[in-house]
């Protein structure tokens, strides 16, 4: 039997995964068994985003999100709701919303309705996702434009009201990098100074093989924890495709799909090894600060369901996780599990 991550790190932090619709619907019982053996927390990869929950103005569809709650109950997995307020994957009707009043109505009703429905059912919410630019300033979005900077604090206040016993997090990527981190710390202090509760900060952790910013990550763990917050790594994966592979030319992609897979025979040994070393170094660091870290969540169960196969362009073949396309542990898995 394959060793279990959730058991190995039980005394340190929770181990989570993103779940997609097919996994939530338990289309494949073997997959459910595999998932529940490895993970004790889950984040919906897409099904709790606003475009899916509120496809039409004021009309909600909770079908799959409700199934996720059932899944969590049945398999004793805590659910991290993802995400209430985000500039991306918004309902399409938001493209036609151009007034402060309407944006405010959407903002308020969406939070009240969704956080209210899952009150006592989700363990935590990523209340606001990705509100910052790389330089630490506020990212341009429909919320910033019409509601001003305070929308972040307001989102936390409304979620707290609708779901008082749920942990509330701010989540972002690259917020371990100094400039963005400084912006993130300022944002958190603003929330705290307004007397509004925030329980934790999520560092997404979409990193690149051979380029893990260990120093910045460690500084971030310490600085965020200093604010009294729980620190989480919420969407961990390590991109293995070369950097210049990111902007693959669309014509090339249409005429020759294989051009998107630099490794048609699988991951070369040296990259596999580097991936293992990177994961090992990361988990060593996480364990060193286990008193400050409450959860490490992978953004997908195995390489086959990683979003990085389709982002930023469709059709890439990627290998960013601990399990291969047949749920077999990769060398990185064995290095990580040996650390516990
Ligand atoms: C991604 C999903 O994995 C994809 O399936 C979807 O097409 C786009 O969104 N940051 C986040 C996540 O907070 O919600 C994103 O998830 C990945 C980047």
UniProtKB/TrEMBL annotation:
Active site: 235
The keyword Ribosomal protein is annotated on this UniProt entry: no
Domain GH10: 1-339
Keyword field contains Hydrolase: yes
Keywords associated with the record: Carbohydrate metabolism, Glycosidase, Hydrolase, Polysaccharide degradation, Signal
InterPro entries for the chain: GH (IPR017853), GH10 (IPR044846), GH10_AS (IPR031158), GH10_dom (IPR001000)
Reactions catalysed according to its record: Endohydrolysis of (1->4)-beta-D-xylosidic linkages in xylans
EC number: 3.2.1.8
Source taxon at top rank: Bacteria
GO molecular function, a single term: endo-1,4-beta-xylanase activity
Pfam family, one: Glyco_hydro_10
Family of the protein in this entry: Belongs to the glycosyl hydrolase 10 (cellulase F) family.
Family annotation (PANTHER family): ENDO-1,4-BETA-XYLANASE A, GLYCOSYL HYDROLASE
Name the record gives this protein: Beta-xylanase
Originating organism: Emticicia aquatica
Organism phylogeny: Bacteria, Pseudomonadati, Bacteroidota, Cytophagia, Cytophagales
Gene: xylI
